[in-house]
Specification:
This protein is mostly beta strands and about 55 residues long. The chain contains no helices and three strands. Strand 1 (about 10) and strand 2 form a beta hairpin. It starts with 9 loop residues before the first strand and ends in a 24-residue tail after the last strand.
Length: about 55
């Protein structure tokens, strides 16, 4: 059984609204909206993102 790991492509801070998008060419997060530079970002990880497809498991 092969499983493919999926990764998120965008994220947002719940505290300041900073938005980032994954840049596959640079292999890093790219800032879309800066938010507060002094914020300790809390990303919108709420359990809805599933890293494995049901068909793969």
């Amino acid at each position: 059984m092969n499983s493919t790991l999926r990764t998120p492509t965008d994220r947002a801070c719940e505290n300041c609204g900073r938005r980032e998008r994954w840049d596959a060419d640079r292999e890093s997060w790219r800032v879309e909206e800066p938010g507060n530079v002094y914020c300790i970002h809390e990303w919108d990880i709420n359990g809805e993102f599933v890293p494995f497809d049901d068909a793969d498991v």
